[in-house]
Write a structure and sequence with these properties.
Length: 396
């Protein structure tokens, strides 16, 4: 599972990625700073069960800070997208190809309107960021459509008379969707899959649009909200795109706060609504001025820098995942080495104990005979749907 960070050039996409992962993707004020996709680990933030249980955890595959569990997520930052990318313009083919396996996208938009449609700097407020939201979705849909259309006659002949959903998903599995997404797209578009040979281009595109929505869902990161004009643009975005998840973001604020926290100047966790000064001597006058702007224009207006909110929204709201904690000793909440709440896994909402067993290891899944809810100490059904925060012992 990857989260793709996307957007046109020069909108703060690399800063968002760096703030998400504390990576070192190049940041510059010109288009196509990113040529090769950058990959790094970001994190979702959830309350750690240690607080509820009155214990102290020592995790292995994740981090726990002040009762907050940070669970790793793969993130990919790809080249900036420009109009007609689906036709190969700019780095379009590479951009789209890099996104094949992304489960969800975070679209970084310059909410201040200070970059034109090509990603070139312009005066703040002179470009309408709502157009950026429209064009990126259309480019991805056109990319899908062109791939399908190019082979449609051959595809329709191969699938005709067979189960459409299964055959189509197998044929285009490299694009990062499966049977579930294809079935959803057919139902949403209302098309008759038994008549695919006679689908018009308009019908094929309608199916494509539905497939994009379910296989590459998008969270919109309305970036650069520390700039005054951005606040009104965010309101317009939320009004016009009311069905989309739109989160006000200041990537630069998040990046600065994380760096200062790492330096020991402040205490701050990603997603916090404030910070605390620790060592004023480590903060330059320029940084103090920056903190004043963050206090007034970021925390004062929107409550947080928004970067962590985007990652959490992509995982929990869009992809509908939950976090589960497997243990080997249900009484002490430990693994065989005595590590307390050692692992945290991001799983589907409909996950069962058997699914969790296979997630831990194929051999454990094959030897699965049951499970125990560590909180209640009771055995649970192997087909019971688990809930977020569950602590589960697998029996083999």
């Amino acid at each position: 599972m990857e989260i793709g960070v996307v957007g046109k050039p020069n909108v703060g996409k690399n800063t968002f990625f760096n703030a998400s992962t504390l990576s070192d993707a190049e940041i510059a004020n010109y288009p196509f700073t990113t040529v090769d996709a950058n990959k790094a680990i970001g994190y979702v933030r959830v309350p750690c069960p240690e607080g509820e249980l009155g214990i102290t955890c020592n995790p292995k595959n994740s981090k726990c800070v002040d009762g907050n569990r940070f669970v790793p997520v793969e993130m990919i930052d790809v080249a900036g997208l420009v109009p007609k990318a689906a036709e190969g313009r700019g780095l379009g083919n590479k951009f789209l190809d890099d996104l094949r396996q992304a489960s969800a996208l975070i679209h970084v938009v310059d909410a201040s309107g200070s970059t034109d449609i090509e990603g070139k700097p312009v005066p703040s407020g002179s470009h309408d960021p709502l157009n950026d939201i429209r064009f990126l979705e259309e480019e991805i849909e056109l990319w899908f459509f062109n791939i399908f259309k190019r082979n449609w006659e051959k595809v329709s002949k191969k699938i005709l008379g067979k189960e459409f959903v299964k055959s189509f998903a197998e044929m285009f599995s490299g694009l990062g969707f499966g049977e579930k997404e294809v079935s959803h797209a057919i139902n949403e578009s209302g098309l008759d899959s038994s008549k695919i040979a006679s689908w018009s281009d308009e019908e094929l595109f309608e199916f494509t649009r539905s497939l994009r929505k379910v296989s590459k869902p998008i969270v919109i990161a309305a970036n650069k909200t520390d700039i005054d004009i951005a606040e009104d643009n965010v309101k317009r975005m939320k009004s016009e795109f009311s069905h989309s998840i739109i989160i006000p973001v200041s990537s630069m604020a998040e990046y600065v706060l994380k760096r200062m926290a790492d330096n020991g100047a402040i205490t701050y966790l990603p997603g916090d609504t404030s910070y605390e000064m620790v060592d004023a001597d480590k903060i330059s006058d320029k940084e103090k001025k920056g903190l004043e702007i963050i206090d007034e224009n970021v925390f004062g207006r929107f409550g947080s820098a928004g970067v962590q909110d985007c990652i959490n929204a992509a995982i929990f709201e869009v992809l509908e995942k939950i976090v589960i904690y497997p243990v080997e000793d249900e009484n002490k909440y430990t693994d065989k080495d005595g590590n307390v709440l050692p692992d945290a896994y991001i799983m589907d909402k409909c996950t069962t104990p058997r699914d969790l067993a296979f997630k831990i290891h194929t051999e454990i899944g094959e030897r699965f005979i049951g499970a125990i809810d560590a909180k209640t100490k009771r055995k649970i059904k192997s087909d019971k749907e688990l809930e977020k925060g569950d602590i589960i012992k697998i029996l083999t």
